Structures are given as structure tokens and as C-alpha cells.
Amino acid sequence: MDPRLRPFVPWVLRGVWVLLVPAAGPAFAAALSPTSGPVRTTASAGLWALWAATLLAMLILAPATLTAVRIVTPAAPVAAGWAAATGRPSATAAAAALVATLVAAALALAPAVGSAFVNAPAYPNERRHLLRLPAALTLGPVPLAWAVAVAVPATAVLTGAAGLWLATAGALVLGAPAAVLAVRSLHALSQRWLVLVPAGLVLKDAMAVADPVLFRRQVVQALRPAPAGSDSLDLTLGAPGLALELLLTEKVPMTLVRAKARTTEAGASARLLVTPTRPGQVLAEAANRAIQVG
Asked: How many CB atoms lie within 10 A of CB 139?
């Protein structure tokens, strides 16, 4: 992406989120119309509050707000699907809600949007690049954590509005700790970066290395797309997509995290693999910083 277009990326997401009010509002209103007064009022107020809080998060770019946005926006098409399934909204209203919420969720999950959020608080001379999610997490733990983070507060609020106090207490007592843990786990995914800095490159990925590792410019030989069958130290954690291979002139010590055993071990390598969400952008910026690529 042209660097001159980067400041406009978050505004596209904000614009689509603002348009959810006319696009999805009628469907939600129709779906909630036959519910009891307290439930309808609470749900409507909750939707407005969540929409406003998410818009505020979109205005304050940071890793923490990226986590919030990426938790809330995928819940919007789920809610729109529920509204459509009730059969109360018209076909046009249901379709408009589904399309608008799906577009908003897709934009929020786009790599360019993630890059804008994590780089806003970065130093001017550094550039953070998010790393791809491991496939094993994408297929199970991440959707489950997201479901817990969304379902627990929604259940507590709606059962409270309906006067189902036992269910509300259960959601708060049993679900709240799980929801907090789920949010913390999801936030950790917003802090996995390969960072280009004046001194070289930094790998910040608590899932792969216990502490951030600096690869000094003096020892960086090249950064390139990983060739097939590379036997370099694999720090991609099984993430799909194009991996980049970092070649060094000497071994760099690091403390590796072994997720299955939940242990760490000392290690060193002169070649390693990582998988950023936008590998082409990483290579282009590395070349601009006089790092050998290809």
C-alpha cells in the first residue's frame, strides 16, 4: 500500500461503522419489537452503547483498541443473522444489516487496519508488522475465546433485564473470569510483531520467544521469502501464508517458548522463519532501510 494512503485506512472502517445505524438499525428494531419492555429497552440501549464505544475505539488507535474492535465487529454479523432468523425484519432490512455488518467485520480484520492500529503509538522511526495467527489457534481456541468474550457479558445483561437473576448470577460468577481470560488471550494476539527499527529488526512474539529479540543490522545478512523446505528455525507456529526467512551472519541467542510443554529453553540461530500478515510490505520497508531482501 502507498504510504500516503495509510492515514485514510482507519477512516474507511469508521465510515462503514457509522453507516451501520441506518443500514442495520431497522432490522434490529424489528427483531426486538415483540420482546418485553425491559429486555427491548436494555438490548437497544446496549446496542447503542456498544456501537458508540466501538466507534470511540476506532478513533483511538492502539493495540488495546484493536483488540476491542476485533472482538465487537465480528459480533455484529452474528447479531444481524439472529435478527434475520427471527423473520421479523423485511427481506431488504435483513439483507442490508447482514451486508453492512459483514463489511465492517471484514474491514476490522483486514491486515491494513491492524497495521494502522498497532503503528499509531509506535515511535516515528519504527514500523510494526503484525504476525499471522497460527492455524491451530484459528481453527479452535481463538473462535472459542471470542465466543466467551462476547457471550458472557451479553448473557449477563439480557438475563438481568428479563429478571432471570439465577442465570445472571451464574454468568457473572462462572463466566466473568473466563471472559476476562479470553479477552487477555485475544489481546496478546494484537501484540505479536516483527518490528523494523533503526538498529535492525525486533521479533516481539510471546508465543514464540519469551522476550523480544533484537537482530542488529550488522548481523542481518538478508530477509527474503522462505524457500520451500527451508530448515531454518521455525518461529511461524504453523501460521499459513508466505513465511519470511531472516538470514544472519552469526547466531543470536533467544529464549524459545515451547507451547505444548509450556516451558522455555535457551536457543540460538543464524536463520529463522516468521510469517507477517503483510510480507510484501515488510520486504519493501526493509529494502527502504537498506536491508538486503530477496
From this structure: 10
Element spanning 223, H or E? strand 220-225
186 with 72: CB under 8 angstroms? no
Closest to 110 measured CA to CA, from 282, 277, 281, 291: 277
Query: 13-70, pLDDT tens digit by residue?
Result: 999 999 999 999 999 999 999 989 999 999 999 999 999 999 999 999 999 999 999 9
Q: How many helices (H) and strands (E) does the chain have?
A: 11, 8
Residues in the chain: 294
Helix axes 9-32, 91-108, angle to 10 degrees: 150
Q: Find the farthest-apart pair of alpha carbons in the chain and give their distance in angstroms, rounded.
A: 69
- Three-class secondary structure of residue 242 per DSSP: coil
Task: Please name the residue ranges forming H helices in 33-174.
Answer: 37-59, 63-72, 75-85, 91-108, 111-119, 135-138, 141-161, 165-170
Amino acid at residue number 181: L
Q: Residue 114, CB half-sphere, CA atoms under 13 Å: how many?
A: 23
8-state DSSP, 62: S
Q: Are 67 and 122 in contact (CB under 8 A)?
A: no
List, in sequence order, every residue forming a beta bridge with 253; answer none if it has no partner.
268
pTM for this model (two decimals): 0.92
